[in-house]
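User: quick one, fold this
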Amino acid sequence: MKTLKQTLWVVILFSSLFFISCEKDEEVSNKLVGTDWADNRGMWLFSFKDNTSLNVVYKIPNAPHSYSFENLSYKLDGNNVKISDHKVKSPHGEFYLIKDFKGVISDNKMTCKFLTPTTEIEEGKTMPDLTKLVPANVVMNKK
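Assistant:
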């Protein structure tokens, strides 16, 4: 009887350890993790860091430098990518860099639709009106 009790305790102990180890398995990375995507015009670069965040580099055409934004959040559902709206504070006011982003991945291309600030500079001004959002249809290529 004593051996049966000891055997049961050993089975319970190993079963408990097995279930605990199963719960601690690391989350599997999605297919975007560690990849970079860029458009043909050189305005956008997306670097997917992990299963939920990415870095974005944005370059206004003819501007002397680019702007980097870290830790934007995203979700991947099959081949559909959704990036959360991202608002930026600047000396020129607050504006959305990306709004209502939806992308679809097909092979090494991501077709994206979203709203972003206009890059057009109105006559008599030195900078675009970043609060004015325009639709963007962008094809990103996996680098």
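User: anything notable?
Assistant: The chain has a mean pLDDT of 84.
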